[in-house]
Amino acid sequence: MRVRMLFLALSVVLASGGAARADDLASLSKDPKQWIMPARDYASTRFSPLDQVNASNAGKLQVAWMFSVGTQRGQEAAPLIVGDTLYVVSSYPNKVFALDSATGDLKWTYIPNQERAAQGVACCDVVTRGIAYDNGKIFLVTLDNHAVALDAKTGKEQWATKTGEINLGETTTAAPFVAKGKVFVGISGGELGVRGRVTALDEDTGKIDYIAYSTGPDQDIRLAPDFKPFYDYMKGKDLGVSTWPPEAWKIGGGTMWGWFSYDPDLDLLYYGTSNPGPWNSNQRPGDNLWTTTLFARDPESGNAHWAYQFNPHDLWDHDEIQENVLVDLDIGGKARKVLLHTGRNGFMYVIDRQTGEVLSADPYDSMTAYKGVDLKTGRIIPNDDLKPDLNRTSRNVCPASPGAKDWQPTAWSPRTHLLYVPHQHLCMNFLTSDVGYIAGTPYVGATVDMFAGPGGYRGEFMAWDPVQRKKVWSIKENMPVWSGALVTAGDVAFYGTMDRWFKAVDAKTGAVLWRFHLGSGTIGQPVTYEGADGQQYVAILTGVGGWPGVVANAQVDPRVRNAALGFAGATQDLPNYTQGGGELVVFSVPKQEAAAPSAPQHNP
Amino acid sequence: MRARLVVLSAALFEPLSSGRADTFPMSTLHASGLMAKRVLPLTQALLIASAIVVVIITALVLIAILRRGQTGVVTDTPIEEVGGKGWISVGVGLSTVALTGFVVWTSMTMAEIANPPSKPALSINVRGHQWWWEFVYENDDPSKIFVTANEIHIPVGQPVRFTLNGEDVIHTFWVPSLGGKTQLIPGQTNVTWLEADRPGVYRGQCSQYCGQQHAHMILSVFADPPDAFEAWRADQLRVAAQPASAEARIGEQRFIGSCSACHTVRGTPANGHVGPDLTHLISRTTIAAGELPNNPGFLAGWIANPQGLKPGSLMPDPEVSGPELASILSFLVTLK
Amino acid sequence: MRTVLVASFVLGLSASDAHAQQGGNPVVGQPIQPAASPRSETGPPAIEATPEASAPFSASANPILHVPVSTLHPGDVSLAPKINNPLAKDPQAATRGMQDFNQFNCVGCHAGNGGGGMGPALSEGRFIYGGSPANLFLSIYQGRPNGMPVWGGLLPESTIWELVSYVESIAHPPSATFGRTISRTPPSPAVEQTPAEFLQTVNPWSFTTSFSDGQKPVGE
What is the pTM of this model? Predict the structure, then answer.
């Protein structure tokens, strides 16, 4: 404990110099007891070195304490644990709570004063995916596009900066990310004709350092002369303009509502962009750069070093905002610095994170929408038989619009060398129609109806070996698996299901070790940490919702399959299993459980 | 009468000047395009054949009437067979030969005009709406695609491909002096082509009854020399500039607040898809699908009273005051 | 100005009548509008536009101003005016409303056949801000604070009434009970609508099949 305080103090001292700031989070994440960003570390592994809970005792997990966040809509956020404090943020209105990580005692609450109308322009439930920490501050983004810094100790507001406009359909749901003294903030609204971008703010003042757009001229995208995409179709001047019909790039999506990762050695920030708008692809001939694109940027200047567009001229709303897990693998006898990108398009990508070269891309779920990825040209090959011509229904398109995997982050274990992937298994019918743009309203032009994929199940939790390029084990789930994954040095992987189960599985075999019926379905991100009492805790924020879950937590009619942009078709029976209700539930394997069952509670 | 006959015969058999086309803006006999010219001999021959048939039949009917009058016999008993079956054979035989000939000729002509003689210089997607025409100038380079309404410009001497879609009911695209009469059917894409062999303005019309304002669904084809066409095309790609005057800027705001759910003006947030794209409204010669000349007076009248001028059209009567209308107008006239 | 136009429409005047009024022909029961009366750009529907009305706040002058959003009436007496949809007898109004619903992006939030999503469902016949024609009109015209945009001004009032006709047409689920039961066994709900990618209709509740539990729709 004292050691950690010293360590924290040291970090704060170091952090006073700009260059040292990166070390703050990087070294904090080396402390196994903490969980200081949603992905736990810059590499986005969601791996905890804690091993008190392991395959042999996970079956004895019990509830340690609970906390209601007071909202009924979907909870996708990851709690953070810094020192002895657990921070958690609710769905809209995005209240932030600071609690004692061992006892659950409430320390402070922060309630932002949001514009209520923001709820009307959030495409897929009024979620947030988390908060960030650095240098004594908690960073919050609100649905109505405010980035806020709070004093981590007191909850006092330090600064608040508006980074988007709801009247243009903009909301913010991605968790902020901090690297090199900058807070990176995304923007949501790929369904509302929002022009995608990432905004970098100074973490001390909240001043906007720069904005890196996803569409438009090279200057706006921050493509410097040294920008070097690996593949030819991304080479040329101002492709963010010329791969669109005139002016369409201004309302063309390419938003960023997912995950950042950062490689301090290469000094590159990685993130992917969303679908182009509208969904009706007939209205936007061209490759629609730089939507569905992975960027590698210099976080200092924002300049892109390379980029890779996954789905040129996206047909099916296949955003690629998923997490990019930075790992070093031995591929073909060579040690390579790669990133793992579990594509929404259903392909598992292994990409050289220095150059943007695709080393492999393998389908990991049922696939009719594409025929493969051409590794020579880098381009994905769409299935022309399903081409969504105007006013014609394309049937049985797999994966469906939310893809084989949506935002829900994977976890990587350096012990098993496996990637743990929560994902859905859905197909759809898709009908395009002409749509006009009216600022602040949906710009979609598609009637979608999703349903369970082949086999009748709708979700899967599986372990993938990126070197062997194959599935190692899998657990089929009735509902889409919309929660994140966690894996620990105890070789236990955790995930939650929409039908209320929270599960611990053996990371090596996939055997279910333990499961627990939570109060509501889970779409959150499990985390683990060690409290001041030396106990390992596993925390999950439950509360069903998100795009697949609004049918159970809001006024959505399960009998109308096209509701919720078509997701209601696939989860129409969800209200038979759960209702909304946000609650943080913290588990542990009590020490007395093993030693003396009658020993007094450590937490009176 | 005689004068008209002279004109008719001239129309049938003389090659025509472009001046004549203005006199007969919708005449199939004034072919000015490659396709129309290939169809013209067939049209003329059918016209002549039909005329001959009419003359013969009329003559025979007259003869029959006159002969019956001469005999003056009225009888209830069936008329005895007096021969003449041979005439039926002759009549049927002649008709069969003539009709077969025309079928073959028509098929050959259709095969001939099915495809343009060379690769089309341009592809235009035509969308028929009740009651106006939307034209999308397609391009392999997506940044060169643009949308306009009711008036198209094409380069002279080059075939242009048209893909046709009906957005609500069945319409028919037809520019008689250029040819290409083809239906626009909802849920289906039809294809035709046109080529104008001399510069000029050619009028077209929806030629499938499509509702109340079918008659007011007019289009104009401007066949431009290639240089002029390229200049026009480059101009159409331009986005609307920020208006110079303060009143027009207020008008732009009002336009966005009142009109943008339906209309697009590229370069502004107005991006509706229900009515015509107005980015270059003032570059067009007519408004309301050829119903009215395009000048500020008619434009103001049209905005103020669309349901009086074109009852049933989707353009609603305005909910703006006179001064508001004036400011919107001052914005619209900047859309050159 | 706007408010007067709303009222004129409610009183059964067509949009073109309202326009004629602008042209200087006074309409019975309506104050004459000064031609130069400017519209407030951002403010509420301009109360200022009716200064000449003898009793500007009386229900007879402007009945739609008196449509309540709440159903809670102190004294248990409701003086709410009864306002019908002026298009109630137009058999094509709902069909035009369905086109409006698609063209003006209502479908993006409320979904095909009004199943809901970003916005609440319209297909269940339950409306947060009231289900009378005037309530529906005002919810569209004024917007609602939790995310319903303001459509007054952008859409003509006739279009909004068409939308009201359509919403009324799709909002009649086949259930006669006070509440609803949700269960796996016996399956409840038991039916679902034929999805909109196969059928666009103003009577979606007339085309139902058995509930699919997230599997492919029947008839695939």
Answer: 0.88
